[in-house]
Amino acid sequence: MNNNGTTQIKLKVVLIGDAAVGKTSLSVRFTEDKFGDNYRYTIGGSYCTRSLYVANKKIMFQIWDTAGTERFKSIVPFYLRDADVAIVAYDITERNTFENIKQWLRLLQESAPETIKCALVGNKSDLLEKRQVTTQEAHTFADEHGLYFLETSAKTGQNIQQLFMDIGSIFVEGPLKQNRNSSVITVTESSDPPEAGKCCR
Fold first, then answer.
1. What's the pTM value of the predicted model, to 2 decimals?
2. Which domain CATH number covers 14?
3. Which of 1, 17, 135, 140 is the most exposed place for a label (fewest CB within 10 A)?
């Protein structure tokens, strides 16, 4: 608890997904409210923080942006081993980045704590004319695997704040409201219901 009596929670959030899906842009938009068109590929991982208040609790998001290139994929488990939340990002204009989500989920199952919560994020929603992955298709995939789902645009800032507010609320208030139609829950391997005690609905 800090000096003004507000409870503070620290959450380690790890961004994973293919290269060039906008992981760095997502983290920079959230923490600095900036956007750049020419970020270089992340080498290893980068770190940034930002705090938000949810239900009078201060949540410090400790965000690790990991490399998506094959060359550095072997070190991603290092960042995942004590993570609270994984954001698995894909580019709605590049179908292969969505199809590779299953590989990233397998990596989570192999390397992340059993208690990790997972969010599926379709980035670059401002590029609707180039869309290759429909919202409904991604939503269905997320439902089948027990994932929270949201589309974002790091360029315009659309849904970036909402993403982290929703993630924070699951640790502060419990399951998200029913009318959100989704919740941040433990990643599951298939469409089978999560085991008892491993889901936060």
1. 0.83
2. 3.40.50.300
3. 1
